[in-house]
Amino acid sequence: MKRLLVLWDIDGTLIDDGGRCQAIYPRAFERLTGTPARHRVATAGRTEPDIMAELFARHGAEPVEPGRVTAELVTQLRRLAPELRAAGRVLPGAVEALRALGRQPAAAQSVLTGNLRANAALKLRLFGLAGYLDPGIGAYGDDARERAALVPVARRRAAAAHGHEFDADGTVLIGDTPRDVWAARVGGARVIAVASGASSTAVLREAGADAVLADLRDTTALLHAVQALRPAARSAG
């Protein structure tokens, strides 16, 4: 029986997009409003609807119906896919980490990502990672605008799939930004932060991560970090 829910962030944790994916937001904005985007907004650790909402607000544009925004973001990423595949890469140690956790009989693995579900699926397919994760028990940018609200979504889906609850101690989020740490803290999960993106180990520790790794290269260190967060391991220590 699965007793541990592991939720992976995608961008900056499992893959490096080579700086390409930020282009889809101004492109989508222009298609939806007919006006070029003059301002840039921060994207790290945010949901795609939240990014677009700030773009509309900063330009004084009227909000666009969410279904249209979603459709345009999906279209723009599909158009970008060949460039993304050429410029991007799977981050070192990611495949080995996914495989190692996949061999743990108690662990179920999915994603908790600000990407829309269709965009998350495309990225995982492009980089050969889809087979390691159960997309049906994850949570995505189309599920909630605030990242912290995604944690209970994933926990509910995993509970429905596996027939029992995953509490905060039985849920581990792995991500690379302070927003990932915040989402876990507010949403109800333990969190392992990986300094494989733009945030340093010091920043991630200060944000309150339960454990911080420099990257995913040391699979043993990751497994130890996950195990140390389990209630049985903490009580034994």
Description:
This protein has helices at residues 24-33, 48-58, 66-87, 94-102, 117-126, 150-162, 178-187, 201-207, 219-228, 231-236; strands spanning 4-8, 15-16, 89-90, 107-111, 171-175, 190-194, 211-213. With 237 residues, it is of the alpha/beta class. The protein has a 5-stranded parallel sheet, with helices on both faces. Helix 1 packs antiparallel against helix 3 (66-87) and helix 3 (66-87) runs parallel beside helix 5 (117-126). It is globular, with a radius of gyration of 17 Å.
What is the terminal separation in angstroms?
24 Å
Briefly, what CATH class of the largest domain?
Alpha Beta
H/E element order: EEHHHEHEHHEHEHEHH
CATH superfamily of the largest domain: HAD superfamily/HAD-like
Principal-axis shape: globular
Q: Rg from C-alpha positions?
A: 17 Å
How many individual β-strands?
7
Strand content: 5-15%
Instruction: Provide the domain count.
Output: 2
Helix residue percentage: 40-55%
If classified by CATH, what would the architecture of the largest domain be? Answer: 3-Layer(aba) Sandwich
Question: What is the spatial order of strands in the main beta sheet?
Answer: 4-1-5-6-7
- Find the structural class using helix and strand composition: alpha/beta
Q: What is the fold named in CATH at topology level of the largest domain? A: Rossmann fold
Biggest β-sheet: count, sense, barrel?
5 strands, parallel
What's the mean pLDDT score? 94
